Structure formats: C-alpha cells, structure tokens
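input
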Amino acid sequence: MGKRKETDLYAPVKKLLEDQGYEVKSEIGAADVVAMRGDEPPVIVELKTGFSLSLFHQAIDRLAIADTVYVAVPRGKGRLFLSSLKSNLKLCRRLGLGLITVRLEDGFTEIHLDPGPYVPRKNKAKSARLLREFARRVGDPNQGGMNRATIVTAYRQDAMRIAIHLRETGPAKASDIAKATGVARARIIMADDHYGWFERVERGIYRLSPKGEEAAAEIPAS
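output
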C-alpha cells in the first residue's frame, strides 16, 4: 500500500453515513465531511492519516458550528496502535468528539465513540493516594517536570531517614528505628527493601546493605 492520503478515508466514511440514512458531501466550508438527515442537525467528520494535534484543533473548531463532530483515522495494527487508540479515545471523550477508524485494506469502518458531553468519573483510590503522598512528603524536594525515576517520594524520604539512622547506630530493632525516626512503617520499608538498602540480621533486626551504606553517605545532612 502506498502513502496514505486523507482522501482514502472519504469513500468508506461516506458509505458508513449513507448506510444510516444521511446525505453526505465533502469539503463544505472548512469541514472535510458533512452529513445531513432530514431536519436533524449536521454531522461533521474530520479526516486525517493519523492522530495529531492538528486533527483535534480542527475538530474543536468544528464544534462551533455543529454538536456532532467525529474524527476519522486509518486503523493501524499491533500494540502501538491499540495503545494510541486507547489514549486518543480518552481525549475524544473529554473533548466531546466521536472517533471512527477505517481499515484501508477493505474499507471496513468502526465507530469507537459517539460525540457527547464529557462527564468525568473520579477515581477515589487514586485521589486518596495523591492526598496521602502530599501529606506525607516533607517539604518540596523535587522540581516540576522531573524524570519519574528521580523523584523523591514520601516513601523514599522515609527510607532515607531510616538509612541515616542505621548508618549512625548500626543494626537495630525495627521498633526502635520507628520510634527514633518517626517512620511508623519502618519495618515494612526495610522488609520490602525496595531500594536494596537494608538487610535483615535476625528476626526484627536490620542493618544497612553495602548499597545502603553508599546511599546513606550521599544523603545530605538535614
């Protein structure tokens, strides 16, 4: 198959709409596709060879003249396309746009989403995690826009306090460490050993691993 063109999408999209009783015409004003059915409001479809910011800008502009606006793109293959489709479905839902894909090999069209007002559904668990992290984090040790791998979380701050304490005292009981550092979840953090900093000496007693010694030495004094 040669290079994809927006015009390759037109015939399949037109047939899709005509099968639903619409009269369809292209390039009416700024709109790629306009469909009318009786006295109903118009349906507009914007065609693009792939998801892009330009496509969504155009579709949003069309919402000024019609309530029912779709974007149409060729259907791709593989996980990369499915991931892109999932992300762009979320975006379309938030913008109140519909989404159509066209399989260019045989013209098969699929409506993945119809236009409609966006009503957000709150994720209470994620919201609670956000608030807990905000409350637990001491100060503001990061800069907005940092790489996720380098962010200092409240969990890491707690692990750092434990590491500093163990570097000063040597092996200690988890309960004593929790009291001395104020980190109530000290035993859990050391047992999980997310960063590879801690070693269990015996039941309930922990020390720093060689990696933990290195990390503690690099932690600036508070």
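quick obs: The longest strand covers residues 68-74.
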